[in-house]
Amino acid sequence: MSEKLFVSLVGEQTIPNILGVLHFKPDYLLFITTWDMKNKVRYILDTLRERDLDWIDHAILI
52's torsion region: left (phi>0), alpha (psi -120 to 50) or beta? Predict the structure, then answer.
């Protein structure tokens, strides 16, 4: 079985990102965002952890 990567742009609205992850149930997550929105990724990951979905968090800053 092949692994799935979920690629998502993160902005002010985080609900579409969360719903996408819940729907597709990927093996890996890649969030693309700006420095100003980096805390939104934390909110998304915290929400997913509350639903017993957890991914290892690695940040790559460019």
Answer: left
Mean pLDDT, range 49-56, rounded to an integer: 86
What pLDDT is recorded for position 59? 57
State which H helix or E strand residue 34 sits in.
none
Contact 37, 11 (CB under 8 A): yes
1-13 per-position pLDDT tens digit: 798 989 999 999 9
- Break the chain into its structural domains and give their ranges: 5-50
Task: Look up residue 39 and give its two tokens.
Answer: 């805390």
Q: Indicate the burial class of 2 (C-beta count within 10 angstroms; 0-12, 13-18, 19 or more).
A: exposed
Closest by CA to 10, choosing from 43, 27, 32, 36, is 32
